[in-house]
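Protein 1 of 2
SEQ + STRUCT:
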Amino acid sequence: MKKIKENIKETTQKLKRLKVRLDYKTFITIKDISSLKIWKDRYPNAKVVGEIYI
C-alpha cells in the first residue's frame, strides 16, 4: 500500500505534456493547452489524444 502511495506522489510531481494529433500521421507533444490554439490555426482538425508524464 505504501508503494502505491509513493508512485502516486511521483506521478503528480512529474511534468505533464499533452499528446496532440495534427493529422492522420503526425503527433506532437505540447507543454500546455494554451499552445494548442496556435496549432489549431494551422491544423483545424488537431485533437488532444492523451497525456504524457515525463
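Protein 2 of 2
SEQ + STRUCT:
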Amino acid sequence: MALKMAPLPHEWMLISIIGFFVTVFQVYGWNKTWGVTLLIFFIILFIASLVSMSGAGTSEEELVELAVHHPKVRRAEHRKK
C-alpha cells in the first residue's frame, strides 16, 4: 500500500531555511532555550517538506486534482468524458 500525499507548499521549505538561519544568528544568542526549540521546529519543518516532495505522486489524475486554480478543474470539466 503506497502512501499518498500532496506536496507541501514551497513556502514551507523557504520558511524553514530562513527561520533556521535567523534562529542560529539571532535568537540562539539571546535565549538558548528558545533557540534550541526553534531550531528543532525548523528542522522538523524542513524534513516534512522533503518527505512530502518525495512521497507526492505524479500521475496525471493527481496532478489535475491539485491544479485547483485551473478554470476547468474548478468547473469539474476534467472529469467529464
